[in-house]
Amino acid sequence: MRTAGFVAPEAKARRQGSTVWRFFKYLRPYRKDLPIALGLVALGAATQALGPFLIGWSIDNLIVPGNVRGLLFILTVLVVNYVFGVQAIRGQILRVGWIVQRVLAQLRQDIFLKVQSLPLSFFDRSEAGDLMSRLLNDVNTVNQAFGQTIAQMLGNLFSLLGIIIAMLAINLQLGLLSNLVVPLMIITTSLFSRWARERFRVTRRTIGDLSTKLEEDIGSVKEAQAFNRVHLNIAEFQQLNAANRDANIQAVAITAAFLPSIDVLNTLATAGVLAYGGYLAVTGQATLGVVTAFLLYVQQFFRPIQILSQFYTQAQSAIAGLERIFALLDEPAQLKDAPNAYVMSPIRGDVTFENVEFGYTPTQRVLKGVSFQATSGQTIALVGPTGAGKTTIINLILRFYDVTGGTVRIDDTDIRCVTQASLRRQIGIVLQDTVLFRGTVAENIAFGHPQATQAEIEAAAQVANVHDFITSLPQGYATELGERGAMLSQGQRQLLSIARAVLVDPRILILDEATSSIDTRTEALVQSAIARLLQGRTSFVIAHRLSTVSQADQVLVIQQGKIAEHGTHAELMAQQGVYANLYALQLGSAASTEPIP
Fold this sequence. Notes:
Blueprint: H1 7-16, H2 19-24, H3 34-63, H4 68-117, H5 120-124, H6 128-170, H7 172-178, H8 181-219, H9 221-226, H10 230-282, H11 288-329, E1 351-358, E2 367-374, E3 379-383, H12 390-397, E4 405-410, E5 413-414, H13 420-424, E6 427-430, H14 441-445, H15 454-463, H16 467-471, H17 490-504, E7 508-512, H18 520-534, E8 538-542, E9 554-559, E10 562-567, H19 569-575, H20 578-587
Parallel strand pairs: 3-8, 3-9, 6-7, 7-8
Antiparallel strand pairs: 1-2, 1-4, 4-5, 9-10
Helix pairs in contact: 1-11, 3-4, 3-6, 3-11, 4-6, 6-7, 6-8, 6-11, 8-10, 8-11, 10-11, 15-17, 17-18, 19-20
Domain ABC transmembrane type-1: 36-317
Transmembrane segments: 34-59, 71-89, 153-170, 176-196, 279-298
Membrane topology: Multi-pass membrane protein
């Protein structure tokens, strides 16, 4: 399902009416190269405009009088002229293509940097497939339009201008007659442009939906087969594919109607020049050479227009893609550091929540007046039902989001007063769903500390109880894991994640159900590694299996965005409250005296 996250930025891009101009601003670093490219474009246009003039002049001054020597000279001039023209066109294509490809590379870089800087709230309401479509499909559409044909477009625009000037200079009356179709062409192009732009916006949106569907289904093939949903996925894909097909057909239908309209104008202009030029020639007001030159100019006049009309189809699709790209670039960036934010010095690890309020949307609060204190070296267990706010507390410690009320402090410092990079550098995290990346085992362990030596990487792996497994691999630490470490088991991926956290040596450690979904033998290795990792660090452990938190210094029972109970495992069991009830249900112990809300 498509979210509404981009609606406002896209509407803003359309209101600005300057999408192409904004794209051309990327040309600023190439100000010194542009005059060379434009000079080659102008030279090519001049050679094309000179040809018909020389032919017409030769008819009147050389062919009719029978001057063979002069005719041979003019033929030589024509050959030289067209050779220069071909070289100029070749040079302009190379130069303009060189510039545009660098502009597109910068555009891709800007998109990637923007995606990396966006806040988590943006990804909460956006789809990965649509973002990939903007980075790949939309930029590729811009490349096809501007990267491959913009040099030809510029050349034809200059040629058109040169032809108009030449026609008006040779014979003002015939020149004005020939250019009567220009206003009609402008009106026609404007109307078709408006209609086509709307249709191509739909095509860019539908290809984004299609990319999202592909990304989801390719990543969940196993689940689709297990739940016998393959036929439903195929049907949904066919529906989205048909929507994209229909949108493209409607867009092509508009551009297909545009081309015959240009041909009609071409025929009218040619007939007008032939009729009126013939009249002027018969009455002696114009020579045969002038009329011939004008007929050649009229054909040249519409050749650039026909080429531009072909470019027009690609340009409309590219502009629609640019609107989506600039809408993404206009998204507000991540939480910004305060103007006077400073680098956080090495911390002890005290964490304090003071009456913290937070909501992912303005209308729904997730945390409601949460207060607690964790002293350095303590292990804090967060338990409670799904959606109670446990993960939100972790996100606020990492400052993935800013609190809407209250304060989060580390060592008596409001985390909003320090830079985010220096804050997160001192926090390690081991997630339930371990994320590994394409690359070697060593590179994955050193993900948070790329400068680590091989000895440091191996030492971290030994602490995480994964060194022996790594050395048993074909290339040891140099073994390529493949996409998301698919060749490893869940437990092996979890041990690598623990080694990654060991290597960065954080003062605050976050564990999000790190022992779920693994077998008993591997769980023992993970628990042993975690025990070593916890030593001397402030740790926050999110656990749904309450047996894993019995040794925690504090247990916070989160319920409906509030701390319902807190204390040690023994204290909470003695209270016979919510925690004791949950513990009894999980382990099959005696029933609690308080029902679970």
